[in-house]
Design a protein that fits this description.
17 helices, eight-stranded parallel barrel, 470 residues, TIM Barrel, 13 strands, alpha/beta, two-stranded antiparallel ribbon
Amino acid sequence: MPRHIRLNAFHMNAPGHSWAGLWAHPRDRSSTHDTPGYWTHLARTAERGKLDAVFLADVIGVYDVYGGTPDAALRSGAQAPTLDPFPVVPLMAAVTEHIGFGVTATLSYERPYALARRFSTLDHLTGGRVAWNIVTGILGSGARGMGQSGLSEHDARYAAAEEFLDSVYALWEGSWADDALVRDRAARVYTRPDRVRRVTRAGTTHGIDAIHLVHPSPQRTPFLFQAGASTAGRAFAAAHAEAVFINGHTKALVADTVRDIRRGAAERGRDPNDVKIFLGASVIVGPTDGAAEDRRREYAAFVDPEGTLALMSGWSGIDLSAYGLDEPIRAVTGNAMRSLIEAITTRSPDRAWTVRDLASFDQVGGRGAFLVGSPATVAEEMQSWINETGIDGFNLVRLVEPENLEAIVDLLVPELQARGLFKTDYAPGPLRQKLTGQPRLPDSHPAAHHRFPSDPPLAAEHTATQELTA
């Protein structure tokens, strides 16, 4: 029996996301991302389609690598302006019951003590439906905005991330026992002090000496996504991630990344199948192949090439304005998204990528699967990607919205369900349980070593927090 495909709606609190300029399409509503109705409609639509999560990208900084100026990004709305993704999660949670919410937070600009509280709060408010997409930052403008001299070295950011996670794990898993919060009105005891402990972690930048500010949430540790497929990023994902978001324009490249991540997880004593892998995918579906192709051409007319190149320059750290349109892009040791640089140079030896390629509205420019066709055509191609690469699902890139997601929900999802490739209803429990069958992290995960020592094991369908708040 084929396994179910996982699907996330991949969005951002900005007018432009992966493709610059689509906000100008007459049927697109992305320019209303600063209103509550945009997010509540998105959440309702995604949950109607039984999608696993709304996955929220984020970036700290503006894209000013292209030509050394932010003008192209600002003019085209290429991830600028960018609003905070955290506040929209409660809006979406209030109008849904099951769908999860993956929130990107850049740990290079956070402190463990404060971020741990923010995620625990969201986990409570969503009933255990929150995930953290762990990133380390890619824009020098963001580093300068945070008072730093510039973006720290790529691999050093991942080394700091290890220290950061050690501290938040200690807070989430080890500061409060599951039975610490009693809310005993008769005894006038809200929390048992003997079931709360201070955690200390020495560190160069991210040490702590504190009691976690929030009692245990349904998941304790939010479900852990990681976005990054460079050598350092894959090693980090193998150690920590429960799900990894990758890009890759060929099945061979994606399959190699998947094998490397799962091999690394096994080497660290984890079950490789505990790591779910999502591929970025631009999907355009119509009633027929011809109708979908017509829509693709219509969308392509609104893609802003210069704005898209501003994004690509920021992601890669390469000023693409210095290249001719048909000049091959050279391999460099970048300090931004190394996985992108590797994908278009050393990991694509059979093709010389050009600036024109990167600005194109297709699989090359999309850096991932680019699927256009009828429900049957797209479903078959999705299954092919799953079978040939070992991925578990797709992050569905925002295009012209809400019509593109609505077409996926109304046309593609029923086709996948009819083929037995997609769930017909949500599993019970918090997000982690829906995705893995377990409400808390497995014992093989590094966070498990921080657990409060006398916490009893929890039944999959029932948690102490649920008992206390029932």
